[in-house]
C-alpha cells in the first residue's frame, strides 16, 4: 500500500493483480485507482490459474513483476512470469522462521522457485543474512530495502490530553499500546500477564490493544480473569492511528519469533515519537536500540516485559528522550519516500 502510494507512476506503468479476493488492505489499494484484476486463481492448487496469470502478463507486455510476501505469489508468479517472458521478477520477502505444514518440502520448493527470481528484497540487513544462510538465496540475488512508513499518517493536531479525552482515558494515566493482529504468535497474553504486574504498582495504567483477529474473545476473557477489564481496551482494527498514538506513552511488541522480521507496527509507533519495548525477535534490534529508542526483552517473559515497562513508566524524561530518538531514526532511515526511491533504483537497474 505504502509503496504504491509513493512510487513514481510517471516512470512506471503499474497494474495490480490479486490472486484471490482483495481483502481489507486490497480494498484500500483499489482506491488508489490503478488498473487491476482480481480472483485470478480459484482452488488451492490451480494449474489453469498459472496459464491465466501468464496470459495477463503477456497481454500487458509486463517488463517487471513484483511478488509481495506470500508463498502463493512466489509459486504462481514465478512460473507464470517465466512462461510469459517477463524480463525481471522480484520477490519482496518479509518472513523469518515461519513454519509451514510439510515444512521441509515447502522450504525446498521456495528454494527452487527462487532460481526463477532475479532479485529478493530483504526487510533489513539481518534479514538479508538470514535469507542467504537459512533459505539459501544466492547473495547476488539479495537486496536490502528497509520496511518503512509515511510519518505524515501519524501526525495529529490533538494534544495528549485531548487524545485521551476522546478515548475516555484520564489525563494523568500511563498508557501502553500494542498494534498487532490478535493471533497466537503475537503473544498478547504475555502483555496481559505483564499488565497484571504493572497495575499493582500503577493502578491507573491503561493498555490499548489495536488490531483484530481470531484470538479476541480469548484475550478479552483472559483480561477479565486477570482483573484487567478496567485497564485493557480492545480498539479493533484502526487505519487512522495518529489521534490514538497521541495518547500513548509506550508501545509494546511482545511477539514470539515465529514469523516476525521487522515490524511495521513498531515503525509506525516510533514515527509518532513513542519509545518501544520489544521482544528479541526477527531483526528488531536494528531499530529498537536498547537505551536509545527503547528496550528489548526476553521472548515469552512477562516479568522482563513488566520490568522494562516500569522503567519507562517511572521515568518521564527517559520516555521523552527515547521517543525523540525513535522518531528521528524513522525520519532519517525508515520513510516510505526513501523506500520507494530504493525500489525505483532497483527496478531501473534490473531493466537496464
Structure explained in plain terms:
The protein has helices at residues 2-6, 23-30, 47-59, 71-84, 103-114, 125-133, 160-167, 188-201, 216-225, 242-245, 264-271, 302-313, 316-333, 336-350, and strands spanning 16-17, 36-37, 64-68, 88-92, 119-122, 142-144, 175-179, 206-210, 232-236, 250-253, 276-279, 294-297. The protein is of the alpha/beta class. The strands form three sheets. Strands 9-8-7-10-11-12 form a six-stranded parallel β-sheet, with helices on both faces. It starts with a helix and ends with a helix.
In short:
This protein is an alpha/beta fold and 352 residues long. Helix content is 43%, strand content 14%. It folds into two domains: 2-148 and 335-350, Glycogen Phosphorylase B (Rossmann fold, 3-Layer(aba) Sandwich); 151-333, 3-Layer(aba) Sandwich (Rossmann fold).
Topology:
Layout: H1 2-6, E1 16-17, H2 23-30, E2 36-37, H3 47-59, E3 64-68, H4 71-84, E4 88-92, H5 103-114, E5 119-122, H6 125-133, E6 142-144, H7 160-167, E7 175-179, H8 188-201, E8 206-210, H9 216-225, E9 232-236, H10 242-245, E10 250-253, H11 264-271, E11 276-279, E12 294-297, H12 302-313, H13 316-333, H14 336-350
Parallel strand pairs: 1-2, 3-4, 4-5, 5-6, 7-8, 7-10, 8-9, 10-11, 11-12
Helix pairs in contact: 3-4, 8-12
